[in-house]
Design a protein that fits this description.
The protein is built from six helices and four strands, in the order E-E-E-E-H-H-H-H-H-H. By secondary structure, it is of the alpha+beta class. Strand 3 (about 35) and strand 4 (about 45) form a beta hairpin.
């Protein structure tokens, strides 16, 4: 039997604000879902809840916003220009070093969310991962010029 304690106040001695749950995890010998019995008529199928959680997808506008924020906070304008160059966006949209960072991010996020560009986007992300891995390696970082 397992126990979970939860206190909703700064003073743990206050009996009225504490919650204690006791639960039993049922045996799982034949690869069935894990069921948690809280002993008060509530059984929870943990595996099913986890599967549902994994299947939740961000809607497209949330995904685009979070990608844009990632580029805004974690990439310099120079790095964004390199990404644009890799995708061929510099020539296509006549982008230069004076292009504002927000505009670069808009072009990149729009390009990366187009299903027609799936392969090149994954290839770029894979290559950037390899570069970061090399830069973080004690021996190899002296050979990476980036």
């Amino acid at each position: 039997m397992s126990q979970i304690n939860y206190s909703n106040s700064d003073n743990d001695d206050d009996e009225e604000s504490n919650i204690t749950l006791f639960f039993n995890e049922k045996e799982n010998n034949n690869n069935e879902n894990v069921i948690v019995d809280f002993g008060i008529g509530i059984n929870i199928d943990i595996d099913n809840i986890l599967k549902e959680f994994e299947n939740i997808e961000l809607n497209n506008s949330d995904k685009i916003f979070s990608e844009g924020e990632n580029y805004k906070m974690n990439f310099t304008t120079k790095e964004l220009l390199i990404i644009c160059d890799y995708y061929g966006l510099l020539k296509k949209f006549k982008i230069n070093t004076k292009t504002p960072k927000d505009i670069l991010i808009m072009f990149i996020v729009e390009f990366e969310n187009d299903n027609n560009n799936f392969n090149i986007v994954n290839e770029r992300k894979k290559l950037w991962y390899f570069i970061e891995t090399l830069k973080n390696n004690k021996f190899m970082k002296k050979y990476v010029i980036w």
